[in-house]
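Usage

Read records sequentially. Each one opens with the input sequence:
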Amino acid sequence: MASLEQRLENIDKIISQSSKIGCHVPARYNINPGADLHDKSKPYRQKTFGERNDNNKPHKTILLVGETGTGKTTLINVMINYMLSVKREDKVWFEITDELTSEQMSDELLVQSQTSRLTIYGFYLQESPIDLTIIDTPGYGDTRDINNDKEIAMSLLNLSRCDNSISEIDAVCLVIKSTVNRLSDRQVYIFDAVQSLFGRDIAENIVLFFTHSGGKPPKNALTAVKVAKIKCALNDKNQPVFFLFDNCQSEPADEEYEKIQEQSWNHSFEGMTSFFKFLENVNPKSFQMTKNVLKQRNQLEAKISNLQSRVQEVEQKQNELKQTQEALKKNKKYVKDEKNFEYEVEVQYKERVDIDPKRWRLTKKATCCAVCEENCHYPGCWWAKDLSWCSMMKDDHCTVCTNKCHYSKHIKEAKIYESKTKKEKRTYEDLKKKYNVKITDSVSVATKLEEKLKELEKEKIKLVIESFHCVETLELIALNPDSVFTLQHIDFLIEKLKEINEPEKAKTLEDIKKRAGEEKHGALGYIKCLIGKK
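and closes with the structure output:
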């Protein structure tokens, strides 16, 4: 442990490398990063303080997740001051985050601050006893844009693919206000959404950070956590591992409330001391299973979206072919006499349309197959310049589009395919040419139509089964196998499984739905309500 003289010397050194914020006591300083990367092609912003050297200094990686407004930003700064051994009597406070209020921001900056981009803080100062990487996720539950929460999951997956240094996680810190005393549908959704990000192997590395705490055990908040069935590390009494923090260390000193402010300081630093002891003893977990969960989530979302479009297309095509069959029956005499006739059908066609820029803040482009004319990944991997990196690709081929085309056949633009219908007049001669039927073999036209209908039905069946297998895989590897994310699609899949005569698979999904409980169905209703307002 550093002596008082050495500690003060370290603080003076950091002050000399920092920018002062305001003029009150404690004196606030923003530590200037050695690197502050804003590469828009990457799924994260990166701020690095100091240089990471190959030495024996311990290195820890933690991930912060939680609802908007819980105080994650303040907690990060508490961690940094704790690591720098700052004491209250030093009358200084260091920050590495951008703690601008909405009043201080321009409209543009405010919008940027509310996007789903991750921020990675690399803290490698010599004055700190350990190296620390903090992955800070945007807050969950922004009622103005529910899609932001989906983009957080996509950003985490993309981070794991483009940054090899993020291979292990020492702790996932779920940040919760200690004042939570009951679970609203919104709160259930947020807790559920956070848990649905991770693999089941990471449960013992998840800890609870209760903020805005007065120091007493947060009984109501802990009850809410248990009701929400949050899986996390447990202590020797089989209770959730949690740490308590107040959020006012950087506030101006006030003689009238000096005792309270001192208690607040001590309270938060005691919580941080306990947390870092936990970090010393916990075994880091590979990010691989969580990466697989994120990938399966992503693929399920893409497959369901594609399936819904494809089912609509198949049904429209079936309708077109049935109209053609009816026209053949209606004109039996012309068919028999090999005479041409005209009839009208409703046909489907694809049109490339612009993506609504208001719908997704980060994901303004879609990955589409130019051969199949399908939206393979929308919302897509917005950061990936090389489409072989798209999470829908496996062995350089798409796992979603009908023909499983090579990634080079795909394009990424701010456009998607939309299916539309129109009335079209056709002739019997056109029909025979289309199905390559000889004029003297008119009966074969009906046979060809039947074969085409069967092909379309097989295609639909394949898509339904692929989507079911995504849910099945999540059941095996996800920390939260019956998440609201899965429940959003489950009724649609149950209906389609019954249509293709797969009652056992449908029952599997019905059991997941029953197991989820009323609380999650309330949260599902909350999401649908928000989506309905868009």
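Summary fields computed downstream for this record:
- The longest helix spans residues 288-330.
- The radius of gyration is 29 Å.
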